[in-house]
């Protein structure tokens, strides 16, 4: 159970702190399609004296809209931040694990917060900026069309990047960012926002499945309400890892295994949308 104070009146009713309870179900019948694949949470109050947990809702919510955020564990640091750690299951074949000599890895540490609407917020810890290498590869700081931004993105390649991006929906129904993209668009992983449905998602139907147990990794998505029609993304690429944080509210932890060596490009999509800002940094190794 991870606690976080909220300043909203409902959250402080009765003088009790709001808290979040997280679970990562393994299911009783052993390994199965959804076993240890998703992390759910409830927001509510904990009465320590009565030892009673009272959730706001009966149904839990999905913490992360990818299918690789598992094994959550948390702590409160000396600054009072509620921090959460995860195991990013790789879902590669056992042969791939054997050949590589390792399996799975840790996801980025994230900070939990309580939003004014009473929901749980998720964002990367600020310390990740210490892994930036050199000056930004790109810095757009005024409204720019998708086409003009893509012209500036054409020469930027990499699978160890931090992309900070704010897109305004404009007239676009679907908009977002392609990462790990090959020059001819044969392979790419698409982070998208579907405005009519109010959903944030990832499309991995063209990601490639080199060493993955999934023949078609598919599309994963979930609800997200935009603020003033804007989508703000913090996207981190680390080889096969893709972690995206949207509006400091929801996240997507996913993986991609392209076949092509040149699947390293970036491209925005969504005619009618506007790039409000975009900054890209190369990321270094944590152990360097």
Overall description:
- This protein has 288 residues and is mainly beta.
- The chain has two helices and 22 strands.
- Strands 11, 12, 13, 18, 19, 20 and 22 form a seven-stranded antiparallel beta sheet that branches.
- It starts with a strand and ends in a 5-residue tail after the last strand.
Summarize the SSE layout with pairings.
Blueprint: E1 2-3, E2 18-23, E3 40-47, E4 52-55, E5 61-62, E6 69-76, E7 82-88, H1 94-100, E8 105-106, E9 110-114, E10 120-124, E11 132-140, E12 144-145, H2 146-153, E13 160-168, E14 174-181, E15 189-194, E16 199-203, E17 219-223, E18 230-238, E19 241-246, E20 250-255, E21 265-269, E22 274-283
Antiparallel strand pairs: 1-2, 2-3, 3-4, 3-5, 6-7, 7-8, 7-9, 9-10, 11-22, 12-22, 13-18, 13-22, 14-15, 14-21, 15-16, 16-17, 18-19, 19-20
The value of Rg in angstroms is 19 Å
Strand coverage percent: 35-45%
Structural class: mainly beta
Oligomer: single chain
Largest sheet: 7 strands, antiparallel
Shape label: globular
Q: Spans of 5+ residues with little confidence (pLDDT < 50)? A: 1-15
Number of strands: 22
Distance between the termini: 34 Å
Tell me the helix content. under 10%
Question: Given the structure, what is the number of helices?
Answer: 2
User: Order of helices and strands, N to C?
Assistant: EEEEEEEHEEEEEHEEEEEEEEEE
Mean pLDDT metric: 91
């Amino acid at each position: 159970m991870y606690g976080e104070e909220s300043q909203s009146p409902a959250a402080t009713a009765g003088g009790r702190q709001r808290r979040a309870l997280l679970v990562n179900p393994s299911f009783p019948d052993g390994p199965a399609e959804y076993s240890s694949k998703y992390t759910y949470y409830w927001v509510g109050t904990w009465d320590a004296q009565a030892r009673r947990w009272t959730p706001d809702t009966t149904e839990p919510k999905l913490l992360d809209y990818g299918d690789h955020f598992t094994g959550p564990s948390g702590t409160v640091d000396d600054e009072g931040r509620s921090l959460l750690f995860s195991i990013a299951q790789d879902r590669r074949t056992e042969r791939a694990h054997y050949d590589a000599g390792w399996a799975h890895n840790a996801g980025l540490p994230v900070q939990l917060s309580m939003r004014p609407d009473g929901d749980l917020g998720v964002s990367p810890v600020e310390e990740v900026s210490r892994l930036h290498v050199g000056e930004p590869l790109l810095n757009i700081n005024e409204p720019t069309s998708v086409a003009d931004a893509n012209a500036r993105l054409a020469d930027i390649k990499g699978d160890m990047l931090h992309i900070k991006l704010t897109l305004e929906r404009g007239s676009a129904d679907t908009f977002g960012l392609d990462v790990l993209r090959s020059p001819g668009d044969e392979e790419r992983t698409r982070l998208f926002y579907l405005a009519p449905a109010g959903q944030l998602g990832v499309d991995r139907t063209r990601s490639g499945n080199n060493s993955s147990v999934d023949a078609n990794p598919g599309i994963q998505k979930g609800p997200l309400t935009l603020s003033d029609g804007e989508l703000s993304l913090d996207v981190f690429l680390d080889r096969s890892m893709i972690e995206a944080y949207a509006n400091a509210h929801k996240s997507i932890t996913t993986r991609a295994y392209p076949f092509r060596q040149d699947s390293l490009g970036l491209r925005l999509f969504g005619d009618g949308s506007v790039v409000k800002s975009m900054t890209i940094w190369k990321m270094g190794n944590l152990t360097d």
